[in-house]
Amino acid sequence: MTELVHTRAELAVARAARTGTVGVVMTMGALHEGHESLLRAARERADHVLVTIFVNPLQFGPTEDFDRYPRTLDADLEVCRRAGVDLVFAPAVPDMYPGGAPQVRVNPGPLGEDLEGLSRPGFFHGVLTVVLKLLQLTRPDLAFFGEKDYQQLTLIRRMCRDLDVPVEVVGVPTVREPDGLALSSRNRYLSAVDRQVALGLSGALRAGAEAAEAGRDAGAVLAAAHAAFGAGGSGARLDYLVLTDPDLEPGPVQGPARLLVAAWVGDTRLIDNAPVTLHPTS
Ligand code: PAF
Known about the structure:
Number of strands: 9
Strand content: 15-25%
CATH superfamily of the largest domain: HUPs
Shape: globular
Largest sheet: 6 strands, parallel
Bound molecules: pantoate
């Protein structure tokens, strides 16, 4: 049975009744197969799976899609029931922020100002602040996040390490449609034409990964990814397409690396990423 609670007082009672390993999957709802793979990963490792559903106003800019972000609680609960989730915490904004918008927020540091942070100022302050609050409220042993939001996952890991948050952060690989499109709650904004254009993102990552497998160097890998994006995603407006160290640290890239892309398809901003391995050039 899946128990649903809305307030932090209800959550405290429900959480106290769970002994054994607790795994949390934090979401903004509109659950899809990508979330289902997080739930499966949590089920495999934890005695109890706790899901949070909260569209966090702190991580949306003034011109972003907070108002139109899909809110589908009944369908989400059905997904949770099917996946054997024990407990769902779906607070309203005043339950999460009883004192109003918090004045004290988690500072993500320099990485929070790069990539997504450049286009979405304050985004990672909002994400890390709500994630830290939800970790305090749910007190999990394990917390599962998708690799699809790779910079978010990296920053959450970093926050837990830097601030001694006692939780194991587990990254779960991205789930894709058969044609390569990464699953995202925002895909539901895409028209049929937009959806075709959106394939430019995964196409660019695939081309980069293939170039890396063929033993090409970092410059050639990135060039191959850009060429493929130009060919396949020509209706999209590229924000960034970069090759970085797997921890998103600045500096030269060699061995295991990450290709990350962000682009606008119509009014919808999409992100994607993939691991690549750069072989040493002889
Ligand atoms: O990835 C998301 O859905 C959100 O950023 C998160 C982690 C639930 C915080 O609001």
